[in-house]
Amino acid sequence: MMVITIGKNPDNDYIIEDPQVSRHHARLTREADGFWLLEDLGSLNGTFVNGIQIIKKRIVPTDNICVGKDCRIDFKELLKSKNDYSEEFNALKKVYDNYTKEKVRIQSANQFKTRLFQALPFALLGIVGMVINSAGKGSSVWYVVCMLLIICAPVVGVYLGAHQSAKIPQQLQDLTNQFKIDYVCPKCGTFLGDIPWESLKNKKHCPISSCQARWTEE
Ligand SMILES: [Zn+2]
Questions:
Q1: Alpha carbon separation from 26 to 4, 5, 50, 67, 78 (Å, rounded)
Q2: Rounded to an integer, what distance in angstroms lies between the CA atom of residue 69 and that of residue 177?
Q3: pLDDT tens digits for 133-186?
Q4: What is the CA(151)–ligand 1 centre distance, in A?
Q5: In angstroms, what is the span from residue 205 Cα to ligand 1's centroid?
Q6: Does residue 183 contact residue 200 with C-beta atoms inside 8 Å?
Q7: Both ends of the chain: CA-CA distance in Å?
C-alpha cells in the first residue's frame, strides 16, 4: 500500500515550504482497491478538494487538491515523490506500438516498390512488343531496340530494384531517431532500447538502477 505524506517537515514524502502548510499536513493513501484516500492530519489551515474543506475523502487524480487555502498540489508530482511514474510509462506503450507498426509498414511498402521497379523494364519490353505488332512490320531498327531491351531488362530491373531498396535505411533511420527521443524513461530520460514495452512493464522499474523510477502500482 502506497502512502504519501505531505507537509513542511523534511521527513515528509512531499515537502512544501509554505507558511500556510503545517509540518505534517496531510496524507494520501492508495487503498487496496486502487482508490486514493486523502486525509487531513489536523492541519492549521485545512486541506481542500475542489474548493471544499475535507477531513478524509476519496479522490481521483483529476481532483483539485489544495493544502491551506491556495497551495495547489499537482497529483502527478505527488506520485513522483514516491518515484511512481506509472502514468507516463503507460503512455510509452503507444510509442512502442507505433514504432513497430511503422517499421513493418516501411519495410513492406519498400519491398513492394522494389519488386515494382524490378519488373518495370519487363513491362516496357511488353509495350515495345505491342507497338511493333500494331505497326505490322518489323523494321530492323525496332528489332535492334527490342533485342537491346531484352538483353538490358534484367540488368536495369536489378539496378532499379537495388536503388529503391537502398532508400529503406534512410526512412528507418529517421524512424529510429525519433523513437530514441520518445521511448525514454520518464524520469531520467535514458533510452529504453529495443526492449518491448511488455518486457519493461514486467521489469517494473527503470533499468538504470540509480534512477529508481517505478511503473507498477503496488
Ligand atoms: Zn530512469
A1: 9, 6, 16, 8, 12
A2: 46
A3: 776 665 677 777 777 877 888 888 888 888 888 877 788 999 999 999 999 999
A4: 59
A5: 8
A6: no
A7: 6
